[in-house]
Amino acid sequence: MRKKILILGATGFIGRNVAEYFAGMQDVEVCGTYYKSAPLEHPQIQMIQADLRSSAEVDNAIKGMDVVIQAAAVTSGAKDIVTNPVVHIADNAVMNSLIFRSAFDHATAHVVFFSCSVLYHSSDTPLRETDFDANREMYPSYFGGAWNKVYFEKMCEFYARLGRNKYTVLRHSNIYGPYDKYDLDKSHVFGATVTKVMTAKEGDKIRVWGTGDEERDLLYASDLTRCVDLAISKQEKPFALYNAGYGRSISVKDLVSKIIELSGKELVSEHDLSKPSIRTKVCLDCTKAKEELGWAPRVSLDDGIRKTLAWYKENMLAKGRQL
Amino acid sequence: MNLDFLKGKKVLIAGGAGLLGCSLTKLLISHGISVESTYFSRTPPKGLEAHYRQYDFTKFEDCLSATSGKDCVIVFAVQASGVSGMKKSPTTSIMPNLQIHAGLLEACSQNGVEKVVWVSSSTVYQEAFYPIREDQLDLNEPPYKLYLGVGWVYRYLEQLAQCYYLQRGLQVGIIRTANIYGPYDHFDDIKSHVIPALIKRALNKEDPFVVWGNGYTTRDFIYVDDLAVGVIKVLDKYCIADPINISSGAPVNVRELVDVILKTCGHSTTPHYDPTKPTAVPYRVLDNTKFDTLLGKIERTSIEEGIRKTVEWYTSTLSRE
Residue B78: which residues within 8 A CB-CB, separation 6 or more? Predict the structure, then answer.
């Protein structure tokens, strides 16, 4: 029998990458939810419209699924986080709680939840899963979002202990690649820079928010989807949590220079020190995922940037549209 | 007690039909404060119906309409069910608690409510065998196993309240309380808590009188009217999203409690303890130093007097029926 996989939030950046990854496979039937965005038009993905803040609609989507991958969220980039920090926090809390309860009620065999590196504190050395310290103050701008992730991880663990189904949490770092948000109002640093670089004219200046000293661990989207695949096939425990990151960090200013260089354009970067930036250094130690799932990133940062730029050229510039 | 700070203010008591809600509603009405209390599945207390309105706070529209135009909002935890309820169905209290409290915080913030007191729960604490202080909460340790799910809901909600305080400027007080008892407790509920359940059985002269557990489970029972005074003090002076314990501070074990109840109810029997039956966390007592130092000690009702008042109230409602 073919395994039924549901991707919640399949029109979002991560959701779409995951959905398309599984859509090509023989032994799986792929379903995805959408809400306000246009549904994916893919012959091997069955799209279900659902407002995931509604208990009935969550149940309707989850019923009968073997695997549920929770990639739905209302997210914002640094600009939104700083100007309106509480936006969507409570909404996301309710939505995820409904999803976990529904997966438990319907005995969904495996739930995969995306947590993220936002809950780690800044560190000069790579962070292991056990380095998370719930007693330490969170970085103020991330406070709400980070506590949401902590809470969702704990809910997965709580339901897992009841012994009905299996939960895997992937704490991923900053993901980049096709279908990222490239709209400057909503995008994170990577997507914003790609858009600025690709739409700039020769000789333009690329503005970087803040000093650009903060360091990020950047993982190419296909490496994350491969990690999901390995978790589904190899993760046997009721509850397991893994870091999924590149394992190395790069400062935002170096990243901007690298994107400019790989674009082949003649551009210079300048810093806008009046703009917010979140000054942390985060880099994930992914030894656990390597040992237990046999996972390690395969796409180097340079290759990932090249692939992303090529994808952007073909899908965004050539078609002249915003995804 | 000084309630002048509430003169001319409109107060909402969300979850007003529980015992703490009833106690506070009566207290505020007796001081001439404008109160609206809410109920959902439970009926409002007799004689106070005029002050009650029905809302379903799992619906965000109801959160918005109830808090609209209010100056102060007091929100009570949806009480976790008793031990057997938690064992049988550990997931049922997760969703309503989360939805109701997240919805009310957001609604208070949107409606510009001046002050909020939110009553959290001692289920946030890890297991400890001493009266625990607020700052001894260790978030790297799980809540007691029976309360793992709901404990994390409350841990999260405390952080959420802090988030609204820090980032939206919502003045919110956070109270961690222990086991509440007193008049208006729900004696007929199958989920009923230990004190009403024991009182009912003692009044029925149940014999043999079997009590679950070995009897050495230690609790910190607070008489509801004492807690109501504490809530008002926090509302007046401590809405800074910093959790503060309010309990009796006097540990009582189940054997001592059973003796007081049997004596008060005039039931002379020897209780039989059944250690094979499940009990909750073996020891849960809160340290009240922070409250007493910052807001002034409340005179607390002794367990003997509190039980006597509770039994009197219960028997008077029985005779009315």
Answer: B15, B93, B96, B97, B100
Contacts of B320 (CB under 8 A, 6+ apart): none
- Distance (Å, whole) CA A261 – CA A301: 13
- Name chain B contacts of A89, Cβ cutoff 8 Å: 160, 163
Q: What is the DSSP string of B220-241?
A: -EEEHHHHHHHHHHHHHH--BS
Helix residue spans in A162-240 (DSSP H): 189-199, 221-234
Long-range Cβ pairs for the range A16-22 (8 Å, 24+): A16/A40, A16/A179, A17/A177, A17/A178, A17/A179, A17/A221, A17/A222, A17/A224, A17/A225, A18/A69, A18/A71, A18/A224, A18/A225, A18/A228, A19/A45, A20/A45, A21/A222, A21/A225, A21/A226, A21/A228, A21/A229, A22/A225, A22/A229
Which positions in chain B touch A93 (Cβ < 8 Å)? 98, 102, 156, 160
Helix axes A89-105, B148-168, angle to 10 degrees: 160
- Check A162 against B90: CB less than 8 A apart: yes
CA angle B61, B66, B67 (to 5 degrees): 105
Please count the residues of chain B: 321
Question: Do residues B123 and B154 touch, judged by C-beta distance below 8 A?
Answer: yes
CATH class of B8-320: alpha beta
DSSP 8-state symbol, A315: I
Domain ranges of chain B: 8-320
Distance, CA of A309 to CA of B2 (rounded, Å): 67
Closest CA to B155 of A286, A167, A148, A76: A148
Does residue B285 contact residue B131 with C-beta atoms inside 8 Å?
yes
Instruction: Annotate B30-80 with DSSP letters as a single string.
Output: HTT-EEEEEESSSPPPTT-GGGEEE--TTSHHHHHHHHTT-SEEEE---PP
Pairwise CB contact (< 8 Å): A159 & B164: no
Report the distance separating Cα B92 and Cα A119, nearest Å.
28
pLDDT tens readout for residues B26-74: 999 999 999 999 998 888 888 899 999 999 998 889 999 999 999 999 9
A–B: how many Cβ contacts below 8 A? 76
The dihedral sign for the CA sequence B151, B173, A95, A12: negative
Provide the edge-to-edge strand list for the sheet that holds B115-119.
Answer: B52-54, B34-39, B10-14, B72-75, B115-119, B171-177, B244-246
Q: Is A208 on the interface with B (CB under 8 A)?
A: no
Query: Strand, coil or helix: what is A251?
Result: strand
Say if the Cβ atoms of B159 and A104 lie within 8 Å. no
| Domains recognised in chain A with CATH numbers | 3-179+218-247+281-299 (3.40.50.720)
Tokens for B285?
Answer: 């007592």
pLDDT tens by residue, A23-64: 989 899 999 999 988 999 999 999 999 999 899 999 999 999
Q: Which residue has the tokens 């380095």?
A: A131
Strand order in the sheet with A249-251: A174-176, A215-220, A249-251
Blockwise average pLDDT, block size 10, chain A, 323 residues: 94 96 94 94 96 94 98 66 63 92 96 95 95 89 87 96 96 96 81 93 87 93 98 97 97 95 93 78 97 98 98 84 50
pTM: 0.91
Across the interface, do A155 and B94 touch by the CB < 8 Å criterion? yes
Backbone angles phi, psi at B37, to 5 degrees: -110, 155
Q: Give start and end residues of each alpha helix (H) in B173-253.
A: 194-203, 224-237
